[in-house]
Amino acid sequence: QPTGALRDYIAIDPVTERWAVVNFPVLSDNPYQIDLPKAAELIEKHKPELIILGKSMILHHEPVKELAKMIAGIKPKPIIMYDAAHVLGLLGTYFQEPLKEGADFVTGSTHKTFFGTQRGIIASNMSKGSDYYELWESIARRAFPGSVSNHHPGTQLGLLMSAYEMNTYGQDYQKQVIANAKAFALALKEQGLQVEGDPAVSYTETHQVVLRVGYAKGVEVADRLERNNIIVNYQALPDDEALTASSGLRTGVQ
After folding, report:
1. Is 201 exposed, middle or buried (0-12, 13-18, 19+ CB in 10 A)?
2. pLDDT 10s digits, 90-120
3. Which among 65, 124, 216, 229 is placed 20 to 30 Å from 245, CA to CA?
4. Residue 169 lies in a domain
5. Residue 36 sits in which domain range?
6. What CATH number is attached to the domain comprising 240?
7. pTM given for the model
8. Measured in whole angstroms, how far is the alpha carbon of residue 85 from the centre of its chain?
C-alpha cells in the first residue's frame, strides 16, 4: 500500500530491474481504500505470488473477501497475508475476521490495540492437506528456535493476562474503541481540522484518525503537540513523496 511504513524501501527485481512489489491502486476520492476493479486488472496482469494487506494508516476494513474471490482461479493460488500490526486488538465479529474471509496468514503486534507486552504473532488456520500447509509447517519450525532464539518468558505472563482480558471484554472493547475514534474524528472536523478518510463512515472504521496539517508540516506540528504532552505520529500522506515531506498526523484512541 502507498501508506505502508516501508514504501520507500521496496526491493528491485534483479532480473527486470523493476520494483519487485506492485502497489494496490486506490480510490481517487479516498486513497485509504483499494480500488477493486483496478486491483482485479493488476492481479490478472501480474499473477502475484503474495498479496500483502498492510498499512501504517489503516482507516477502513481490508477487502479480503473480494480479493480472495479474484484469485480463486489462479494456479498456483497467491498467498494473502493480512498485516494486523495496528488492528490485532480489533479483529473479531465487530470489525473484521481476515482468516475467515480468505487470508492465509495474519501477522500482528501484541502491544498496540491488543494491549499486551511487546511481542509479535504470525497465525494461520491452515489444515493438513491445504495448498500451503507445508509452508506453514516451515514457518512454525523456523520461528523457534530459528528466527527467535529466546522467547522472553518474562513478557509471556503479561501477554497471557492481556489475552484473558481480551477474551472476556474484547467485543465491548472493540466496539467502544471504534466509537471513540469516530467521535474524535467528528469533533476534530467540527473544530475546522482537515480529517482524512471517508465522511460517510465518520472518517474511520478503526482506532486511527488521520489529519492533514499542511505540506511538510507534520514534524513541526507533532513536535509542538509533544511539548504540550500530546503524542502523535507525523506521517507521510498518500500524496507526499517521502516521510521527510510529511503532511499528516496519525492519532489513535482507546
Report:
1. middle
2. 999 889 999 999 999 999 999 999 999 998 8
3. 229
4. no
5. 26-154
6. 3.90.1150.10
7. 0.89
8. 6
